[in-house]
Amino acid sequence: MDAAAPYLTDRAGPAAAGQVLGPVTGLVDAADRLYGHWYLLAAAIAVCWGGGELVVRRLAAKASAQRMALELVSTRHFDPSLEEIFRRGVQLARASTAMPWWAPRRSKAVQIRLRADGSTPLRYRIEGPSGGERLLSITPFGPDVTVERARPILDKPRDHVVRAEFLLRGKPTAPLREVPLTPDPLQPLVDAVADLRAELGDLAEIRLDIQRAPKWALRARRLQLMGAARRAERREAQRSARWLRQDAGGIEDSWGWQLQQLLSDQPSPGSGRRLVMPPVPRRVEPAEALGKLAEDDHLVRVQLLVMCASNTAGRAQARLAQLQAAFDVFGGRSRWAMRGVRLGPWQIGADHWPTRRGFERRWNLGHCRPPRPNWVRLEELTGLLKPPTTHCRLPVLASDLPTFSLGEPELLLQGIYRSPDGRQRLVATYAEETLFEVGVGKAGGGKTERALAQAIGWAHAGGGLVFVDPHRDSWPRALPFLAHETLMPRIALIDLGGLGPHPQVSSWNPLGMHHGQAAHEVVEAIADAYASALAWDDATAPRALTILTAALTVLIAINEAACQAGRPQDQATLFHIRALLTDAAFRTAALTAVADRLDEETRAWWQMVFPTLPHDAFAVVLNPITRLAANPLTRAFLGQPAGVYNIRAAMDSRMVVWVCPGGNGPTDRLLTALLARDLLRAARSRRDTPQEKRVPFRPYFDELITLTGAAPETIAAMFEDLRKYKCHIHGMTQLLSRLPTPVRLSLLQNASTLATTAGSKSAIAPIAAEWGDDPSPDRIATMERFEHYISLNVHGRRIGPIQLRGPHLDDVFATLARPQQAGALHRAALANAQALPLRSCCLSGRDRRVSAGRG
User: Looking at residue 13, what is its pLDDT?
Assistant: First the structure.
């Protein structure tokens, strides 16, 4: 047995070696065959990769088809905090994973779309997985941001399109620049697209895709960064040691060192060169080496794509350059840089092969697959995670404020807007939304000129208006621009200034019943006008109000009888109040003539109460009438029985009426109060007309301080009530503080347009306060002449305050000027008002005809 052992061992050795070497030989042979046929291996790998990529693309496209879109609209008071914006970023990162389990990573992203096409300053949309809609719909921004489900955007093809992809360049671990919230970080982007022109097909869109950073890629990147940091530290230590040895050797070889050794009593210990200890490499701190990549929390991967288009050559390229400059604001040690290579004047990037096809696929499907790991923390994206805030200056586009076009009845001229690119255009509001308007500013600042331009444009568009100007300066200013044959039949002038050697005056009988007024409404209007102008009320002048109301009731009953009898020329006027109260014969005849028209209470008052009144009780009623009669102009205007002036007819027939009361004294204030109250009565009388058939009418009140001094409650009631009757008031004043409190409160409460020119800070402060002191009174006070700050209502949304230049008639309506026809228009306006020479207006013998009138 012992002799046979070596034999068995020798026989088993080659077999065992063969068993070990057989697989190795097979592997070597297989490797040799693969090396000889490498193309087969490459083809197999390509087929597998292509098949896998095709499957992944199909799954990603299927997942992208389930995406939804939300549009966020912020108010002008939107002012979020950093914490609110950060929470929104956390929501976006969380929503990016709300996809089916089979969805590829490239489709697991949330996209922020910033889009401008000339219709809106900057649309802010969020697109993401449909499973994250509930999470994205509830924002931490509160009621200042409205979230709505957005419809798909269908773009028409443009002739010129440029594309760009922005990558993070610089130190990969360094953050982007921390941009403050004031001013808005979006301001550079808004400024870059502020001069977009929709009519030229301009379009600019920015898409920022956000997805959670993959863990395995982060770990690999951290290992790479830590290894690079350690190698850099070792190289630095070696470099320091080398320089240290060189410095030490240089010192020992120097003449000074050798001389010191010769002169020294004691030789230096040791011989040869001194021993130099090399520096030890410094320990690499992960937080320092990894920077923003040190922690996984709130770290995301982003993809930034930009596309600009236009139908005009060169505008898309210029827009892209503006956006590129805007992104430079976010740059620090890390920055956004455009992907591509520049070769002289040519830029090879996302618009060229081979990257264009992948760009378009990611653009169309919303896939996030950047060529570089653009890792950022949510804090770096603060400026892009929210819509524009209150600190962002948004441009005013044609979709916000329409462009004025002469002859358009839907538009009302407001001023001249200068866009950021220097272009100027006439802007307007929609007439149906411009209910009440207030213009404030110092004398000569342009508020009346702006109101005149608006009124002239409204008149040329076929609209009706009444322009009440106590100073009459507006009439000669507007005359050349209204002197058109088509307008002359619609314009009437009520001029009580008495200018010229032979003044002409129209007529108005406030008591007249020949226009079909309701008797009780006329009595109420005149009595209220008296009370307003003379500061009467039931506490201070109850007897005067009673006497006046009773006298008006009798005279209006006489007028009703005369009109029914076909004798409107026998009607009573305001001046017959004196005869009714002081002339017994006239009073007896008048009461007898209308006894059957008076109610029992009124007849009893005249029979029982009136005889007991002392004569001095009538003075307070008769004194204002005496002052009116003492002025030949007002006596002629109010003393005609069948007056021509009928503001209700002017409303319904789209007349353009210019009323110049003539002054602001006590007598003029009473006349103004009568006119204002009659306007309020006439507008309210439109109750008899269906709302859809009421013709819009615009009263313009210049010098509200003068007008409201006569009728404060009446003017306040106009700003409160007349909207229902399509009667829209425009008022101009120098000082809001000079207006009566009811008028001022009604103005500010109901004004759909609020404008101010430059002035003193104390005068401007109330208007600036309505705008939240933005702009400040200091800024408004230093504006140039004819400049206005104005807030407007368009499509139910407030625009502004924005700065406009007031339209100057000689510039804006230069083509309308017909100075050679101004005289003809003046004569036509007096003829339409049936104005007569002052001398021909005679009142003698009229009391007898009035008292003889029978029903």
Answer: 56
CB contact set of 314 (below 8 Å; sequence gap of 6+): 160
| Helices 4-36, 38-64: crossing angle, 10 deg rounding | 60
Positions of the chain with pLDDT lower than 50, given as ranges = 1, 3-10, 270-271, 844-845, 848, 852-855
**For the chain, how long is the longest CA-to-CA vector?**
175
Single-letter code of the amino acid located at 120: T
Q: What is the DSSP letter of 2?
A: T
CA distance linking residue 136 with residue 89, whole number of Å:
10
The reply to whether omega before 801 is within 30° of 0 (cis) is yes
State residue 250's pLDDT score. 67
- How many CA within 13 A on the CB side of residue 326? 21
Query: Exposure string (b/e) for 771-801, b if CB count within 10 Å is 16 or more?
Result: beeebebeebbebeebbbbbbbbbeeeebbb
Handedness of CA 587, 589, 594, 595 (dihedral sign): positive
Residue 645 is classified by DSSP as: -
- Amino acid 270: pLDDT: 47
- 321: buried, middle or exposed (CB in 10 Å: 19+, 13-18, 0-12)? middle
The CA distance from 711 to 530, in Å, is: 9
pLDDT digits (tens, 9 = 90+) for 391-405: 998 888 888 889 999
Residues 663, 667, 673, 676: is their CA dihedral positive or negative?
A: negative
- CA angle (571, 572, 574) in 5-degree steps: 145
Q: At what angle do helices 712-721 and 519-534 cross, to 10 degrees?
A: 130
Distance CA 525, CA 591 (A): 22
Would you state the pLDDT for residue 248? 67
Distance CA 767, CA 790 (A): 10
Number of residues in the chain: 855
- Position of tokens 């879109």? 69
Query: Is the C-alpha dihedral spanning 656, 449, 702, 495 positive or negative?
Result: negative
The model's pTM is 0.80
Q: What share of the chain is helix, strand, coil (3-state, %, to 5)?
A: 50, 15, 35
Using a CB cutoff of 8 Å and minimum separation of 24, what contacts does 343-350 make?
A: 349/163, 349/164, 349/165, 350/163, 350/164, 350/165, 350/305
On whether the CB atoms of residues 86 and 382 are closer than 8 A, the answer is yes
Partnered with residue 161 across adjacent β-strands are 309
